[in-house]
Amino acid sequence: MARRTPAERFARFVNLAGPVPLIRGVQGRCHQWRGSVDDDGYARFWLDGRNRRAYHIAYVTAHGPIPAGHEVDHRCRNRRCVNPAHLRALTHRDNVLASSNVAAYRAAQTHCHRGHPFDEANTRRRKDGTRACRACARARKATKDATVHQLTPNRTTRKKAA
């Protein structure tokens, strides 16, 4: 019996009738990986003596090498999908922002939770890179100063110790 080529072995693990993605703009069914997956749920495939991410192999086969400084993103958000039409190369920042995690949610915000705009004049960058609203900081400081004034006793009304 002849030995299977890597392409034949790869094809054995792909279900072309995978789920239809619910993401707007993603066409066609996912090519669902039926082989092994890692702890994060990404498809894995043994090639050239290494255990590799199967969607990387699918991307490189269809689109060529992954550009330097880029990573492969699943447009369909399905980690087991190896459909080349669902895969694209993005920078890490763009990949994170394309997801539905907290970092992407916060980066997409144009206003703080009190409605002040995140613009050049009203936004301060913290040391950890997150944004802070200057108007809210001023309001907190004014409230804090007013509270401190109310709590400080007036020296003229104090009873003198006998």
Question: How is the secondary structure organized here?
Answer:
Blueprint (H helix, E strand, L loop, with lengths): L5 H7 L1 E2 L16 E2 L10 E4 L2 E4 H10 L6 E5 L12 E5 H7 L3 H7 L14 E3 L5 E3 H18 L11
Antiparallel strand pairs: 1-2, 3-4, 5-6, 7-8
What does this structure look like?
- The chain is 30% helix and 17% strand.
- Strand 3 and strand 4 form a beta hairpin.
- The longest helix is centred in the last third of the chain and has 18 residues.
Structural class: alpha+beta
What's the total number of strands?
8
Succession of helices and strands: HEEEEHEEHHEEH
* Fraction of residues in β-strands: 15-25%
Percent range for helical residues? 25-40%
Mean pLDDT metric:
86
Tell me the strand order in the biggest sheet. Answer: 1-2
Overall shape: it is: elongated
Low-confidence stretches: none
Major sheet, described briefly? 2 strands, antiparallel
Radius of gyration (CA) equals 27 Å
How far apart, in Å, are the first and last alpha carbons?
109 Å
